[in-house]
Design a protein that fits this description.
Layout lengths: L4 E3 L2 E3 L9 H7 L18 E4 L2 E4 L12 E3 L12 H8 L9 H8 L4 H4 L2 H4 L11 H8 L22 H6 L14 E7 L5 E7 L1 H4 L4 E5 L30 E2 L5 E7 L2 H10 L1 E6 L6 H4 L12 H4 L8 E9 L2 H6 L3 E8 L12 E8 L12 H8 L21 H16 L13 E7 L4 H12 L6 E4 L16 H11 L3 E4 L2 H7 L6 E9 L5 E13 L5 H8 L2 H4 L6 E9 L13 H19 L3 H8 L8 E2 L2 E2 L10 H20 L15 E12 L8 E7 L5 E5 L8 H13 L6 E4 L21 H24 L6 E4 L2 E4 L2 E4 H10 L5 E6 L6 E12 L6 E11 L6 H20 L30 E5 L22 H13 L10 H12 L5
Parallel strand pairs: 1-5, 6-17, 15-16, 19-20, 25-26, 32-33
Antiparallel strand pairs: 1-2, 3-4, 3-5, 6-10, 7-9, 7-11, 8-10, 12-20, 13-18, 14-15, 14-17, 18-19, 21-22, 23-31, 24-25, 24-30, 27-28, 28-29, 31-32
Helix pairs in contact: 2-6, 15-16, 20-21, 20-27, 23-24, 26-27
Length: about 1000
């Protein structure tokens, strides 16, 4: 076969592999802007142009592109000038993590005038999990939000993300956007059973597959138990996980790993492994799991593994009461009690879990610190464009490690494993260290866990994250790095594991499904007398995050309301289902759904406006926050905007009423079809601006030779906007512009420690470390400049590129040279331990219309009020709110990870598991409150998780207002709404 293809005006003649899709063919040639989000044509991240027509390259056979011209996002710009669509996406910042952006750009670039008038249809083939689509629409419409930098005036302005130009040109480097010589590929064999013991496992046939180098089973795994959850304090989670176990506890648990020259060979190796299972009884319902005689998921020593009651499948529990709830209910004029249920939700970050590991040489750097070989360092940090030059191969297996020699090596390894002889874990050789590049929110905690698991010193392991394609809590886990590291250590070769979209559903984690019972009592004037809460959280087969999520769920959901009598009983329960984990809101959204629904119903029974009842009982500024366990020690209301949030909701309500009375065209109800029902609803929430127990961040700011600054932080960037905000903080303190600050991040080499980018800490914790480092360096520069000029530091001030001392001026690069001559480095460190903590407030209001004939819900208006303290970057913060609302709407209306009777996930693809598309998401009016926090950096508070939490109850309350039916189970799908309304119409419900 003679093959010829033109890619971005360059000729290629390498034939595609049999059955190869165009996406992988292009990535093999180094065009890493072509992304994998689904490999099923569902998400559009792989969109390219073939002879000028947009296609999903994951579905397009590479052989069909023979003789054609292909354009990827890297080729969209011409003659060094960005394509107009690329510039528009920069001007409006139509991205967050950016993993989907190339697909949107390639689709948008070919839209004609007619298609531009119908964006819901035109964009139906592209998904975004981060933005909520408003920023994407504004980009397409040519709306500009990004501001130009101004020296010393960075905070509070809508400055663009520094990675923007790379994101829109396809040169931002995500986890696998690198060329690694000699790369091997891993695939996992997974359990078909919900609960079983592995009686025997035969790997001989797998090892005979050409190209297979290694098969790992439980014989090769360390005996040490650990948790996949990543927290600063590992004791927060149970040690219940083994890297490869001889007992499987859910369908999809990894049983073996095959490493080969290609993914195809590794997959074939998995198919040839013969496993004999002793199938055990399984339990899928958390209430049944706690009953006597239920199958025990983890028969472990509870004290040693930190499992509360393993014999009852209770991994963690809480029981607390203040006051006397029974007395509180006795004095109430109205009592309302209801059960609620929330479902599993997938994070659905478009970049799936994955990691690549290899070894590199160590050297003694000029500062005496252990470093890395120069040629590899740039490649893994992804800071240099030459990390993936167009036309380079992704990496072929070394010739001396293939064929019969490799097969003999693998046979030997497999025989040892089969005999139970692992020969120990080979540590990195002298002068070498293990490098793990991962799509993770927690590089430092992952390094620490790997070192504990494999008994390695910290300096022997480096973990680094490139740009991360979405997280939402799902990548606060170690679920790929451990197995990849083990394989790399066994083979001394680079090894890659990249999850498929299906594996994300059955091999990663989900949001915890909750069952909640809430009882509330109030006097006739609406004053609460008692609140009682019972929570059962289904943590699945492993307890990663289980107890912590349950504890958090029972916290701010109760403490946001003043009530003398509160009681909470919470249980985190094992079942034989896919494990749950950290998810945006961390359990709070599930309980807020129930609590806000109960108070709405309580107000209706009292004949009150629900907003009036809530306003009467909400916590006030200066008051203690009291849960069922009492006051939280380090949690404070360091700024208070909840009253303003409720004011925004009242204004929206009054506007709609006034518009309707005047028959004003702005009244949303005027567009409602005849026969549809209209209602409105609201909800509020409060969240701590960081996890309890401390969250550590270090930062270092250094003056460079050219008068610019280097900012090193540990926190990861995955669309949360922290990179932009950290540069803004540093620029403001150093009197310069953000473009004079280069940031290095999410790499265990760059700073001492960082707990990670989770718990809404990117700004309030890591940002505070950056602020302290920047303040310290600013003071040092002024002192040094004063000494240099012979004047007092008090008479000096930092300006762009210089220090001014009265009428004299010294350039920063001159100060650098002077410091170097004196043997001094002008650099300072900043540290913050994450305590004390403040709280953020949010309120959501919806007006909706419901079709009784189909159950369709149409959102007429969406208003969100956010108390974010000092808003560091309005454009980005608004995007966080809109993205949180959109994601929460998906969880409220249709997203559901379904589990079959055998414990298997039955929705392992986007087309089965519906994500919100452009047409599903309304434009939300976002309002920021005027507050300044006394704890957060420069008055800022967190705003990445909190917008999610009030959305479901606000919509459920609007649905109750429209239909008269209280919906207590999520998601409120069309069929569920229709059935409830139909039963009501036929008089089948009371």
């Amino acid at each position: 076969m003679t093959y010829a293809i033109e890619v971005n005006k360059k000729k290629f003649d390498a034939e595609p592999r049999p059955g190869q899709c165009l996406r992988t063919y292009l990535r093999d040639r180094g065009w890493f802007g072509v992304k994998k989000g689904c490999d099923a044509g569902d998400c559009g991240a792989c969109t390219v142009h073939v002879d000028g027509e947009p296609v999903h390259s994951c579905l397009y056979p590479a052989v069909r592109a023979e003789g054609r011209s292909v354009t990827t996002v890297e080729g969209l710009a011409e003659d060094g000038e960005l394509h107009p669509v690329q510039q528009k996406f920069l001007d409006a910042q139509g991205f967050q993590c950016g993993f989907c952006t190339a697909g949107f750009l390639m689709t948008t670039a070919k839209l004609d005038e007619d298609q531009l008038t119908d964006l819901p249809r035109a964009l139906k083939g592209n998904l975004c999990r981060c933005t909520g689509y408003r920023a994407i629409e504004d980009s397409i419409r040519g709306v500009k939000h990004a501001e130009a930098p101004c020296a010393g005036k960075a905070v509070g302005r809508s400055l663009p993300a520094p990675a923007g130009p790379k994101v829109v040109t396809g040169t931002a480097r995500y986890t696998f956007d690198i060329a690694v010589p000699g790369l091997l590929h891993m695939k996992l064999l997974r359990s078909p059973h919900a609960h079983a013991r592995i009686v025997s496992i035969d790997t001989a046939a797998a090892l005979r597959v050409p190209g297979v180098h290694l098969v790992l089973t439980h014989y090769d795994a360390p005996e040490r138990l650990y948790s996949t959850a990543r927290h600063e304090h590992p004791e927060e989670d149970p040690d219940d996980t083994r890297l490869l176990d001889d007992t499987v506890r859910y369908v999809g648990q990894r049983v073996a790993a095959v490493v080969a020259d290609s993914e195809g060979a590794a997959e074939e190796g998995c198919r040839r492994i013969e496993v004999t299972y002793d199938v055990l009884p399984a339990v899928l319902d958390p209430e049944e799991a706690m009953l006597p005689g239920a199958p025990v998921v983890h028969a472990k020593d509870g004290k040693q593994s930190r499992i509360s009651r393993p014999q009852d499948n209770v991994v963690g529990e809480t029981h607390g009461e203040i006051g006397d709830v029974e007395a509180g209910f006795a004095e109430a004029d109205v009592v309302y009690e209801q059960d609620f249920q929330t479902q599993r939700v997938q994070h659905a970050s478009l970049e799936t879990h994955g990691a690549v590991a290899w070894f590199e040489d160590m050297y003694e750097g000029t500062d005496g610190q252990v470093g890395s070989a120069v040629g590899v360092d740039r490649r893994i940090t992804g800071e240099e464009d030459e990390a993936a030059p167009a036309g380079s191969a992704e990496g072929k297996a070394d010739a001396d490690s293939t064929g019969a020699e490799a097969e003999a090596e693998a046979e030997s390894t497999g025989a040892e494993a089969a005999a139970g002889r692992t020969g120990g874990l080979p540590a990195p050789a002298d002068g070498q260290r293990l490098i793990v590049r991962s799509s993770t929110q927690t590089p430092f905690l992952t390094r620490r866990a790997l070192c504990v698991l494999f008994e390695l010193p910290l300096e022997k392991v480096r973990v680094v994250a490139g740009r991360v394609g979405g997280g939402f809590g799902g990548k606060q886990e170690m679920i790929v790095e451990d197995i990849v590291a083990l394989a790399a250590m066994r083979l001394r070769r680079p090894v890659k594991l990249e999850y498929t979209r299906a594996e994300q559903f059955y091999g990663a984690t989900t949001r915890h499904p909750f069952r909640i019972r809430i009882k509330a009592g109030a006097r006739r004037d609406g004053t609460l007398t008692a609140l009682q809460l019972r929570v059962v959280s289904n943590t699945g087969a492993y307890g990663n995050h289980g107890p912590a999520v349950m504890f958090h769920a029972c916290g701010e959901s109760l403490s946001v309301y003043r009530c003398p009598n509160k009681k909470a009983d919470g249980y985190s329960v094992y079942t034989n289902a896919v494990p749950a984990g950290a998810f945006r809101g961390y359990g709070l959204g599930q309980v807020v759904f129930g609590m806000e629904s109960v108070l709405d119903e309580l107000a209706r029974q009292l004949g009150m406006d629900p907003m009036v009842l809530k306003a009467r009982n909400i916590i006030k500024a200066g008051e203690p926050m009291v849960t069922a366990d009492g006051e939280e020690e380090d949690l404070h209301i360091a700024s208070y905007g909840l009253d303003q949030c409720l004011g925004i909701v009242r204004t929206a309500q009054e506007q709609e009423k006034e518009w309707e009375e005047r028959n004003d065209p702005k009244a949303t109800s005027l567009s409602v079809p005849d026969g549809w029902l209209v209602g409105e609803g609201s909800a509020l929430s409060m969240i701590a601006t960081g996890p309890p127990g401390g969250h550590v961040a270090d930062a270092r700011v250094t003056l460079l030779a050219d008068g610019t600054f280097d900012l090193a932080v540990g926190t990861a960037e995955f669309g949360n906007g922290t990179t932009t905000v950290h540069r803004q903080i540093a620029a403001g303190e150093l009197g310069t512009t953000v473009d004079q600050i280069t940031i290095r991040q999410s790499d265990t080499d760059v700073v001492r420690h960082d707990t990670g980018a989770f718990g809404s800490t990117g700004t309030v914790v890591a940002g505070k470390a950056t602020l302290r480092a920047s303040e310290a360096l600013a003071a040092s520069l002024l002192r040094f400049a004063g000494a240099h000029l012979g004047v007092s530091a008090a008479d000096c001030r930092l300006v762009e590129e210089a220090v001014e001392c009265g009428d004299r001026r010294v350039l920063l690069k001159e100060l650098y040279a002077s410091a170097q001559a004196a043997g001094r480095e002008l650099a300072e460190d900043g540290h913050f331990g994450g305590t004390p903590r403040s709280v953020a407030f949010n309120a959501q209001w919806f007006k909706i219309a419901v079709d009784p004939g189909s159950g369709e819900i149409r959102i007429l208006r969406s208003v969100h009020a956010a108390d974010a303290g000092k808003v560091m970057n309005p454009m980005q913060c608004r995007g966080q709110v809109e993205g949180g609302v959109a994601q929460a709407l998906g969880a409220t209306l249709f997203e559901n990870v379904r589990i079959g009777d055998r414990g298997q996930v039955t929705t392992p693809a986007f087309r089965m598991y519906r994500l919100p598309a452009y047409a599903d998401v309304p434009r939300t009016e976002v309002h920021f409150m005027e507050t300044a926090d006394a704890i957060g950096p420069l008055g800022a508070k967190s705003m990445s998780e909190s917008p999610f939490n009030p959305v479901a109850p606000a919509l459920a309350n609007a649905l109750r207002d429209a239909t008269g039916i209280r919906f207590t189970e999520l998601p409120v799908t069309r069929d569920r709404v229709w059935r409830a309304m139909d039963r009501r119409a036929r008089g089948l419900d009371e």
